[in-house]
Amino acid sequence: MVPPFIRGAQNPIWTTILRTGDSLADIKIWCLLTTVAPSNVDVPAAAAIGFRFSASAGDTHFVGVCASSGAARTVSASVGDDAVAVSTLYRLQVRKVDTSVFFSVNGSDEVEVTTNLPADTTTLTWYCYIVTNTAATKFFTWYRHHYRALLDP
Length: 153
Hints:
The chain is 0% helix and 50% strand. It contains no helices and eleven strands. The radius of gyration is 14 Å and the shape is globular.
């Protein structure tokens, strides 16, 4: 279990870097701050802020996802200039500012989400996770993550 480490009230900036594997068929990639580890679903089952790529949801790009609970969720428009491709390095960034979350991929223009953000008092844990819907082995290479809190509540 990864220990909890950040709250929305701290207006965090979280960056993670990964390289996709040699196949994107039948997978979901989750990189997010959440209260519960992601599973084989297209929307989080708990409070979350982060990125999803899901072949089964028809994603061609990473999308931003905010969930204030398992029932209240917002999925953003595509984030980044280019479609997700095999064997490609991605820098995913989440930037929270008060009542908005901004998503960017590889320094792209930010996509803003203002609905269904987790409560500022919710303690979030980071996860980078892959789920496959077939018996074939799938992978991505996770390089690192970095976060900073702009406020100390």
